Amino acid sequence: MITQIIAHRGSKGVRPENTIVAFNKAIDEGADGIETDVHLSKDGKLVIIHDETVNRTTDGEGRIFDKTLAEIKKLDAGAYFSEKYVNERIPTLQEVVDLLIQRKYHGIFNLELKTDKIKYPGIEQKVYEVLKGEDFPFHLVYSSFNPKSISVLHQLQPEVEAASLFKINTKAARRFSRRRIIQEWHPSIAWVRSHRFFLPHVQLRPWTVNSEDDIKYCFKKNFKGIITDYPTRALKIRKKMQGE
């Protein structure tokens, strides 16, 4: 089996994460998939950013949930990474979907709902409204650390592939696997390494797989996929190990 290479927050290692330039780079590099994160703004808009606050990756401060989309769009989301990317903006979910359609991207679009710290009432329904019913070129996968979000999304779109994210606790992942609500586990690579002698018989896409040793380990194990900040590095290693 050829192990899928999914670009974590776009090509996060070489571009400002979760921006249009990061997603374009991942597509250009030939990544099999793109992973990203969605939050809800104060005025109920779906925005693409990893943290609950804008502090780390923009020139602003404060929680996403306390800012309107107009306020969020004023923030510089590229300068923290490099002066080359000054004035990159935080995209909306719709803008990312539009990009993937424009690029005719046939890979995986792994959307993580960031509801493990802030619950964002109604976010699952809003995501569904954007992603329901259209003939998208990409293959949609939902994931979350929050079991409730996975359950709600499964009720809304039972045909869509889903995965449980976790660092340590596998309780929800095991329960959802038995009920066939999810198809994969997305564990941390640290968890995978610590359980290497008794890994469960489920499809795994570990995160965040960046070192050459970890990438090679996952390819040797023929995992379904890896989520990495450096898709180009992983693609080169995969060609040597798996021939593609």
From TrEMBL:
<dbReference type="Pfam" id="PF03009">
    <property type="entry name" value="GDPD"/>
</dbReference>
<protein>
    <submittedName>
        <fullName>Glycerophosphodiester phosphodiesterase</fullName>
    </submittedName>
</protein>
<dbReference type="InterPro" id="IPR017946">
    <property type="entry name" value="PLC-like_Pdiesterase_TIM-brl"/>
</dbReference>
<dbReference type="GO" id="GO:0006629">
    <property type="term" value="P:lipid metabolic process"/>
</dbReference>
<dbReference type="InterPro" id="IPR030395">
    <property type="entry name" value="GP_PDE_dom"/>
</dbReference>
<feature type="domain" description="GP-PDE">
    <location>
        <begin position="3"/>
        <end position="238"/>
    </location>
</feature>
<dbReference type="GO" id="GO:0008081">
    <property type="term" value="F:phosphoric diester hydrolase activity"/>
</dbReference>
